[in-house]
Amino acid sequence: MPSKTDVDVLRELAKRYTEIAALPVQEEKRALWRKLNARKPDRPMVMIDQVCWNEMNIEDELTLRCKDDECRKYETRLRRTLFQWKRFPVDMVVEPFIRVPKAINNTGLGVRADDQVAVSDPTNSVVGHQYTNQFQTEEDLEKIKTPKVSHDAEETERRLSVAHEVFDGCIEIKAWGADPYLGLWDPISTWMSVEGALFALVDTPEYIHKLLTRMTGGYLTMLDQLEEQGLLCGEQSLVHCTGAYTDELPAPGYDPQKPRTKDRWMFGLAQMFSTVSPAMFKEFEVDYTSRICEKFGLVYYGCCDPLDQKMNEVRMIPNVRKVSMSPWTNEERGAEQIGSDFVFSRKPNPAFVAYDTFDREQIRKDLTTTRDICNKHGCPLELILKDISTVRYHPERLTEWSQVAMEVVEA
Q1: Could you check whether the bond before residue 350 is cis, i.e. omega within 30 degrees of 0?
Q2: CA-CA distances (angstroms) from residue 388 to 56, 186, 277, 342, 393?
Q3: What are the start-end ranges of the E strands in 149-226?
């Protein structure tokens, strides 16, 4: 069990966390997310995600005090939440519980990246990769295995026991199952390199179809196992990087002890398809990811991939509710295509917080342009600042960005 010193540190943080989680504004924010996700928003919603935490440590607020590794993971989560709530909360929701991950063993698809890494800032987790192409022959396809899922119930109980020892009397504990991300092309880009995969789409399309068939079949089998063993997660607070609150999920017949895929959100993306034609997007992404997405209740689709010229194909994917509009989209065209059918999930350019100088008016103009375009076309809108690899060690920039964003959406 953790030392008394570690327990004292965590309980003090949990006390502050619980006070914030009990504020009425948390339910007010949940209600706003539900309205947005029903495509009937009161106003656009705002989130900040994927923060460069290595540049954030103001006055040692993020410095860890615990010694035990397990305790340090809880401490990291608590400190970051408290830090973000204090400085750039926007529309985040602080939940009145701590999630404890179940000990789920998953053999996965059996392939690991073979890469070289380039590091520019050793304190930053964002690094460069040069990948080796591991899929060039028919025999290489055999590397993709069918995942096998199992649950180490004893280890889960141990984790829960530690969490109860630390947090009982402060905050509720919830065992948390798998919240899977099942994109096809992010893994392929690390197995083949982006260049290798794009050339293969043209040079050996049937080979890529075989690879995708094996991957998709493996994912579907994995989902069946997670369902059968009751190992999927409970009701989600987030999907990818946005609020997941909705009155449409879970589906009728929900059993909290045995969640189903149709009770959950899924998200999909094909970021390396930015320069691929709509026809190839349909053939090599939509036709496969649709088999996965049809199993889920709702779907968030896209990330950095510009989708403004591929909305006809995105509409073919079952259960899509939110569509990412990255910094590289034509917003006018994307909004015209989306209309009121989906949430326009705008990703403002994170470069605006990474320049040599910080320009509040540039940010205001950028966000106002998005808001006005979405108003014109009747698009439900969310603004998601993410992929923040640097703020040039000026953490106050995120506070300023959040202030401008809230002024724009509340105007």
Answers
A1: no
A2: 12, 19, 28, 25, 12
A3: 149-151, 172-176
Is the pLDDT at 115 greater than 90, yes or no?
no
How much is the pTM? 0.95
Residues 6 or more apart in contact with residue 293 via CB below 8 angstroms:
266, 268, 299, 301, 317, 318, 319, 320
Residue 118 has pLDDT above 90, yes or no: no
Count other Cβ atoms within 10 Å, centred on residue 258.
14
Q: Is residue 195 pLDDT above 80, yes or no?
A: yes
The tokens of 35 are what? 């309205």
Q: Identify whether the C-beta of residue 104 lies closer than 8 Å to the C-beta of residue 180.
A: no
Residue 79's pLDDT band (cuts 50, 70, 90): very high
CB neighbour burial string for 79-90, b if at least 16 within 10 angstroms, e if fewer = bebbbbbebbbb
| Full domain range(s) for residue 187 | 4-410
Q: Where residue 369 sits, what CATH number does that domain have?
A: 3.20.20.210
For residue 53, the one-letter residue type is: W
Q: Kindly provide the b/e burial profile for residues 322-345, where b requires at least 16 CB atoms within 10 angstroms of the residue's own CB.
A: bbbbbbebebeebbebbeebbbbb
Instruction: Indicate the residue type of 108.
Output: G
**Structural domains of the chain, count:** 1
Q: Which two structure tokens, joined as six digits, stand for 356?
A: 């040599």
Check pLDDT > 80 for residue 165.
Answer: yes
Q: Rounded to 10 degrees, what is the CA torsion of 63, 67, 73, 74?
A: -90
pLDDT at 130 over 90: no
pLDDT band for 39, please (50, 70, 90 cuts): very high
- Other CB atoms within a 10 A radius of the CB of residue 177 amount to 22
Phi, psi of 46, deg, nearest 5: -135, 135
The answer for 291, left when phi > 0, alpha when psi is -120 to 50, beta otherwise, is alpha
For residue 119, pLDDT over 90 is answered with: no
